[in-house]
């Protein structure tokens, strides 16, 4: 069997790469040719040879694992670019605890196909790429994106390179996701809510949306750097039948200096069916009241306005009316000292009565009103959910109950 002779400096080079001492050679066993026989041989510096071999070995390693370190990201918005995608996925990988290759960014390269709105995002390691698969459905610049394996992914080969499934202990809640749910915001009944004033809090927006029923999924899109609202959100209702009702009731409503745009995220707005019109009318009345508490800084006052707390028909009889007033004083006086209780009654001549169906509670201080608003909002009355909001003191003083 023939032997391969290596140049001494090449042998030294491999010794440096492996971190071990080069083996001792016996000069008399395999004498090297002399310069008289072959002339002077060009000798590459040890450092240059070391770097060249290292680069070759590294590239071989990267090529062998690239299919398992890349993820496909589909559904990108037109504004996406390589830098924004790399920054976003590095940020969310860190946020969920998905970085396993040490400090630094998880993303090492991004290729975007702008025409087809997808990207290949290359991670540092196979394990980090597998963790990134848990990000399917995450909201990127206002749009949910699909995270999949690339078409050249080889499952059997990848299994020998590292974990093929996301770590079950990832903190997906940190980026608004739950395991296997795609954020709870996929499907044709996903609603886009745009034009939200930036001062609206997550709690306030949920209260507004939940006027139509409980939510299955909700995501207020926030700036990655500041954590502030970007003015739009997505939601899905548990009862999908109210999707079009909510869109019709909320779309076009003025909120401060903004106008809401509310529609199905994946298609144009669909009008509610005729049998849903009564529900829509009721919802619009609820929205008008909700708007009162969605003001800048949600200013608290000494006056609380309740709706869905009384039956209008019962207000006609004088004796019953007085009993209702007294019951309100007793029950609502538990939150603070009441100064006045006003419940507008139906007009005997049939003309519209300002504030009919509402209850106004005036407390001696804001603290009492605040406790009442917190304690009464959401209570049930005859199967209806009470809505409690702060009411402007100047309007109440002027007996303007239609605000």
TrEMBL record:
Any GO BP: mRNA processing
Keyword vocabulary terms for this entry: mRNA processing, mRNA splicing, Nucleus, Repeat, RNA-binding
SUPFAM superfamilies: RNA-binding domain, RBD
GO MF terms held by the record: RNA binding
GO cellular component term of the entry, any: nucleus
Listed CDD domains: RRM1_U2AF65 (cd12230), RRM2_U2AF65 (cd12231), RRM3_U2AF65 (cd12232)
Main subcellular localisation: nucleus
PROSITE patterns in alphabetical order: RRM
Alphabetized InterPro entries for the sequence: Nucleotide-bd_a/b_plait_sf, RBD_domain_sf, RRM_dom, U2AF_lg
RRM domain location: 69-152, 189-267, 308-394
SMART domains from the UniProt entry: RRM
UniProt subcellular location: Nucleus
Family: Belongs to the splicing factor SR family.
Function: Necessary for the splicing of pre-mRNA. Binds to the U -enriched regions of plant introns.
Annotated PANTHER family: RNA-BINDING PROTEIN
Protein name (database record): Splicing factor U2af large subunit
Gene source species: Rhododendron griersonianum
């Amino acid at each position: 069997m023939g032997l391969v002779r290596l140049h001494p400096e090449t042998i030294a080079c491999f010794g440096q790469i492996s971190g071990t001492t080069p083996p001792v050679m016996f000069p008399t066993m395999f004498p090297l040719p002399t310069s008289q026989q072959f002339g002077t041989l060009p000798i590459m510096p040890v450092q240059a040879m070391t770097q060249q071999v290292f680069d070759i070995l590294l590239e071989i390693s990267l090529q062998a694992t690239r299919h398992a370190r890349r993820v496909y990201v589909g559904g990108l918005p037109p504004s996406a670019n390589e830098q924004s995608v790399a920054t976003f996925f590095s940020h969310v990988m860190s946020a969920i605890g998905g970085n396993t290759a040490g400090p630094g960014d998880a993303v090492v390269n991004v290729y975007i196909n702008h025409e087809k709105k997808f990207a290949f995002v290359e991670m540092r390691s196979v394990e980090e790429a597998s963790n990134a698969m848990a990000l399917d459905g995450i909201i990127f610049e206002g749009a949910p994106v699909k995270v999949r394996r690339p078409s050249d992914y080889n499952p059997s080969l990848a299994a020998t390179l590292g974990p093929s499934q996301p770590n079950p202990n990832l903190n997906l809640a940190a980026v608004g996701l739950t395991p296997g749910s795609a954020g709870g915001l996929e499907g044709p009944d996903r609603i886009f809510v745009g034009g939200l004033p930036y001062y609206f809090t997550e709690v306030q927006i949920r209260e507004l949306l939940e006027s139509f029923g409980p939510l299955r999924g909700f995501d207020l899109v926030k700036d990655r750097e500041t954590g502030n609202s970007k003015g739009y959100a997505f939601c899905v209702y548990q009862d999908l039948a109210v999707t079009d009702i909510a869109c019709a009731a909320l779309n076009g409503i003025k909120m401060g200096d903004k106008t809401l745009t509310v529609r199905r995220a994946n298609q144009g707005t669909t009008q509610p069916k005729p049998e849903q019109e009564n529900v829509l009318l009721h919802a619009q009345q609820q929205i008008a009241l909700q708007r009162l508490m969605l003001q800048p800084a949600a200013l608290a006052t000494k006056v609380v306005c309740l709706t869905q707390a009384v039956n209008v028909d019962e207000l006609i009889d004088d004796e019953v009316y007085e009993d209702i007033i007294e019951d309100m004083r007793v029950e609502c006086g538990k939150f603070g000292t009441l100064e006045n209780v006003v419940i507008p009654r139906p007009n005997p001549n049939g003309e519209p009565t300002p504030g009919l169906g509402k209850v106004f509670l005036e407390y001696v201080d804001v603290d009492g009103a605040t406790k009442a608003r917190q304690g009464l909002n959401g209570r049930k009355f005859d199967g209806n959910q009470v809505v409690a909001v702060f009411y402007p003191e100047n309007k109440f003083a002027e007996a303007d109950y239609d605000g």
